[in-house]
Amino acid sequence: MTDKKIDEPEFVRRFPNLASPRFGSHVASASDEFFGAKERLISDAPPVFIADKYDEHGKWMDGWESRRKRDEGHDWCIVELGARGIIHGLEIDTSFFTGNYPPGASIDACAPNADVDDPSVWETILPATVLEGDKRQFFTINDGGIWGAVRLSILPDGGVARMRLYGEVAPSWTDIGDDALVELSALRNGGRIIAYNDAHYGDLWALLSEGRGKTMGDGWETRRRREPGNDWIIIALAARGVVEAVEIDTAHFKGNYPDSASVEGVDFSGENDTGLLDGSTSWGEILQPCKLQADTVHEFGGADISSPGPVTHVKLNIYPDGGVSRFRIFGRRQQ
Prior knowledge:
Layout: H1 10-14, E1 26-30, E2 54-55, E3 58-59, E4 64-65, E5 75-93, E6 104-110, E7 123-130, E8 136-140, E9 146-155, E10 159-160, E11 162-169, E12 181-183, E13 192-196, E14 201-202, E15 220-221, E16 231-249, E17 260-266, H2 274-277, E18 284-291, E19 297-301, E20 311-319, E21 323-324, E22 326-333
Antiparallel strand pairs: 1-5, 2-3, 4-10, 5-8, 5-9, 5-11, 6-7, 6-9, 12-22, 13-16, 14-15, 15-21, 16-19, 16-20, 16-22, 17-18, 17-20
């Protein structure tokens, strides 16, 4: 595949990939995976091609690939989502599959906690559609359903490098008390990134993921700032809440961590994000500028936190630039 840039639809930039393992999503089953392991289908890493790599089954390919089908039917793969959500767009990526890609595909979905082995639970969200080889292909979804698993059917066989499901988490708060302390920024709870001034390096959505970063590329990092000012990122919280604690983790960032950071918040009720970006919004201080250290989990609570009241969005400012592996906001939900 060539390295030329392609135009990505807005949903790729706006929403996280719900099929990502960072949500706890996993490939539950597949009809066949003779040439390529089913788990590769949802890898967060971009697919690669290694010309001279072979295994006991033949040419190694970075994706899910079934054998050549010699009977009726088609192959399929089921992905169970780690967080229930609304899918706004799909990507089926056949990168590096040229003579072995499926000529068509469809996608079905089922509700959270449904029995994926029951044929009656599945609803089609992408009807059978033509695929091309060695290409990222995008499809808009407008059904508004809340889904817990998807089934990719390839027609009839072949290989797919990646499948991504861009959407928003639809959390269920029924099992969480109204007064419980919640990680309001977590991807898995429904937190999401809505704007930033720069994200030159790393994996942006990893910033709100679970655990600590595995490498320096597992987080948000800006380019070296050569002009006045500072870098920033805005997070829409999973729920409106009062912030009680903040965590900023600079794991693996040693010669490039920010010198300091601050956090602001706002209770925003606008219908779109424009008001957060045009300078008309008045942000309140949650965490005043504080020094950071390399490769360290920084925890702030108690007297460190200034509460402007319930907030729906937070803004992490880093001075002047650098990398942050994880950012967490803990608070109690408010109606």
